[in-house]
């Protein structure tokens, strides 16, 4: 324990950066606050450009040796990190919940096991890399995956360790070194990951973590000429800024951004299932990029759907995310709550009706909200709120349903509730979305491509898409003749 250690729910967390295998403190700190009750968790090193540059230098220095480390050894260390995550699931879960307010039970049973899986999955991916050689007019083509170099990974607060390790694990497996910049509202579990990685034997400089405000250190990271890959999850405005900053170096960029995804409920659907799917969109207090926040219901069942939805929504337990019985915790930050409430106020002023909720609760909690009487071109239908706010619109034909579903600038996901397979196939084909769920939601598999079209992102993550992004793919074509030993 040092003066830089915080005790968070009984867990020791270092508040400094992790650069070149050492803890580095900034002269200044920023204050980390728990959304559960607004209490101050403590001061975290407030990174400067100098520390951002030092982290890239450490990643650059460590790159040749890590890239040359045999695959089996890289995979072994990644599995050791997964072991470390599994041993510390309880610590990681309670620290994450304290920091971002998402449900403790989800962190324990779902999220942190997935964090370990991220490392195991990409370790195994590395060991099974293969693209069979193939021939062109007698010449042999051989594909190889060269590590790309230092990679900057910038991550958000809504699923901090899960979304960070989604990037860290494939980058490390591919042989890249990493500078991770966690979101300033949720800095803690990244620091624990540094401890776990060091204990697992990850060499110094292979994983570096710089804490701080994106607005202060983001450009230093993303415009750095030694950075070979950048992967970002977060908002569209920040993505645009990063895109501009990488232009000088043409640094390859992966962007996973927001959404305004539809849930289409057809009259032939199992209505109870459709209602369950709709209420699920409040999970994590609506702070999920994939959330289907626009409910589109076929006119003939809209009244009944709304009745059942309202009944079901009334049973949602909102409160302390550490309680097993809680369904929805707080929103991340006062600033975010003001943003959410602003969206709702403006929608109500414009004539929307709050069938459910429509106001702030105590502290950092926002009442689960369903708004009807909203126009397709209104702000509340077009913009990502990132809070527990859903809209409900109706349609009368399949054609209209598809048109409304596709009519935003996003294209991340879509969910269908229908009892008709042919309809599901027809509609799915016409939807602009990176993921379509039919009669289900949030069934996720790391093998699947994940990401969005239009303003929802650039590129895909998951499986081969993540792994290949962090590599310089090379095809070597060898002639059949010319070898001295063959004459
Ligand atoms: N798609 C998603 O998963 C997410 C979407 N959002 C959306 O963004 C809205 C605003 O949330 P914010 O926290 O402000 O998102 P943000 O996009 O500003 O933050 C995400 C990450 O980007 C970093 N960042 C900020 N400015 C940067 C810069 N100039 N260069 C490099 N990195 C920078 C932040 O420090 C953080 O680590 C939300 O209301 C929501 O609509 C936010 C988080 C996640
Ligand atoms: O958990 C997943 O598989 C994906 C989660 C993605 C988000 O919550 C996000 O990017 O906001």
Automatic annotation (TrEMBL):
Keyword Oxidoreductase: yes
Keyword annotations: Oxidoreductase
All copies of domain Aldehyde dehydrogenase, residue ranges: 27-475
UniProt-listed CDD domains: ALDH_F8_HMSADH (cd07093)
Keyword Oxidoreductase part of the UniProt annotation: yes
Active site positions: 256
Molecular function terms from GO: oxidoreductase activity, acting on the aldehyde or oxo group of donors, NAD or NADP as acceptor
UniProt xrefs under InterPro entries: Ald_DH/histidinol_DH (IPR016161), Ald_DH_C (IPR016163), Ald_DH_CS_CYS (IPR016160), Ald_DH_CS_GLU (IPR029510), Ald_DH_N (IPR016162), Aldehyde_DH_dom (IPR015590)
UniProt family annotation: Belongs to the aldehyde dehydrogenase family.
PANTHER family: ALDEHYDE DEHYDROGENASE-RELATED (PTHR11699)
UniProt name for this protein: Aldehyde dehydrogenase
Highest classification ranks of the organism: Bacteria, Bacillati, Actinomycetota, Actinomycetes, Kitasatosporales
């Amino acid at each position: 324990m040092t003066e830089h250690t915080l005790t968070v729910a009984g867990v020791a967390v270092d508040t400094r950066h992790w650069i070149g295998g050492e803890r580095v403190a900034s002269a200044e700190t920023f204050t980390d606050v728990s959304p559960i009750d607004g209490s101050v968790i403590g001061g975290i090193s407030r990174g400067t450009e100098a520390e951002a540059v030092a982290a890239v230098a450490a990643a650059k220095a460590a790159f040749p040796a890590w890239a040359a480390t045999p695959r089996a050894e890289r995979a072994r260390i990644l599995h050791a990190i997964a072991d470390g995550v599994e041993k510390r699931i309880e610590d990681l879960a309670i620290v994450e919940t304290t920091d971002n307010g998402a449900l403790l039970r989800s962190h324990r049973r779902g999220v942190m096991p997935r964090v370990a899986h991220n490392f195991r999955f990409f370790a195994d991916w590395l060991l099974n890399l293969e693209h069979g050689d193939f021939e062109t007019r007698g010449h042999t083509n051989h594909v190889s995956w060269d590590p790309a170099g230092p990679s900057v990974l910038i991550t958000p607060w809504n699923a901090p360790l899960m979304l960070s390790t989604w990037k860290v694990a494939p980058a490390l497996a591919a042989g890249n070194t990493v500078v991770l910049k966690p979101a300033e509202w949720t800095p803690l579990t990244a620091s624990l990951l540094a401890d776990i990685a060091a204990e697992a034997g990850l060499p110094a400089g292979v994983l570096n973590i710089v804490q701080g405000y994106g607005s202060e250190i983001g450009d230093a990271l993303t415009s750095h000429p030694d950075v070979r890959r950048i992967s970002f999850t977060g908002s569209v405005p920040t993505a645009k800024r990063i895109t501009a900053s990488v232009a000088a170096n043409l640094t390859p960029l992966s962007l996973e951004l927001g959404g305004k995804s539809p849930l289409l409920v057809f009259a032939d659907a199992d209505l109870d299932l459709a209602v369950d799917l709709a209420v699920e969109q409040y999970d994590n207090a609506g702070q999920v990029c994939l959330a289907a926040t626009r409910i589109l219901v076929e006119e003939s069942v809209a009244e009944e759907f709304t009745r059942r939805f309202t009944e079901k929504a009334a049973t949602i337990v909102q409160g302390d995310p550490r309680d097993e019985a809680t369904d929805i915790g707080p929103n991340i930050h006062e600033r975010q709550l003001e943003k959410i409430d602003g969206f709702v106020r403006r929608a109500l002023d414009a004539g929307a009706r709050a069938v459910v909720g429509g106001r702030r609760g105590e502290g950092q909690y926002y009442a689960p909200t369903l708004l009807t009487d909203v126009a397709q071109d209104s702000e509340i239908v077009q913009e990502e709120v990132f809070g527990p706010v859903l809209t409900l619109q109706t349609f009368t034909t399949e054609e209209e349903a598809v048109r409304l579903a596709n009519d935003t600038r996003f294209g991340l996901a879509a969910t269908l509730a229908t009892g008709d397979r042919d309809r599901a196939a027809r509609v799915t084909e016409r939807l602009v979305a990176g993921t379509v769920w039919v009669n289900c939601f949030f069934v996720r598999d790391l093998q699947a491509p994940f990401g969005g079209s239009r303003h929802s992102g650039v590129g895909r993550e998951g499986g081969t898409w993540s792994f290949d992004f962090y590599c310089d793919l090379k095809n070597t074509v060898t002639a059949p003749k010319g070898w001295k030993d063959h004459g």
